[in-house]
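Your task
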Amino acid sequence: MKNGSFAHFGFISSRFVQSFPNLKEGMESFMYYNKVDLCGINTSSLKVLSAEEKTELLKRTKAGDRKARAELIDGNLRLVLSIIQRFSGKVRDADDLFQVGCVGLIKAIDHFDTELGVKFSTYAVPMIIGEIRRYLRDNNTLRVSRGTRDLAYRALGAKEELSKTLLREPTAEDIAAHLGETPSAVTEALEAIMEPISLYDPIYGENGDSLYVMDQIRDEDCNDDVWLENIAVAQALKKLSDRERSIIAMRFFRGKTQMEVASEIGISQAQVSRIEKSALERIRKEL
């Protein structure tokens, strides 16, 4: 989703389109460092509407006033930005998240009923969060079930809430008890929504030399002894005859029985047994 796509909906003011031409860079800066600067614009200077102003603009919007609608959008951009911070782990999609959040804001404006007697933000926040969650669910690198994803976001919300009440980082057990779920279910759900990383992602760099994720990973089952043994076996196999190598390959690499090997190469099972035994004995001597 790009800036130009907003024109399709016909709801963004010219100020919005002109103000965010390079949204990704600015949003990543905002998400990483919590700066107020967004694409060269001081977000703290964005207009904040009073309750009376929102009510008046909502009424004018319902009456078809497009200018009031645009003012209402511009006056609630900070609400979208504050919600995006809850999804700060998705920095790669920061620009898309902001735009999707704005879509949720527009839907809230278009569907809000001023006769309900509730604050606009009370109605808009769940709408914006729902829009972002749907986007993340449908555009995740790995497909995760809706139930698992919903549990993960409930856990993130509970984590934020518990951090304030407990004055410490809540454990998986704390979050599970708060949600009425098991700790394992909460842990698995949170792990499921984590973005996968590349083996070539740098984790450290100095003087032009970078250390990558793959440099920190090793196969515990593949040590020097195993590596050397594999080389020795390969060398021993090379010294067998073609028929011996063929029988060993079918028996121990393809899982065939002696009868199946005998049928395939046209000899008796007894001959296969003798050739196999002789080949294995030669391999043992080489090792």
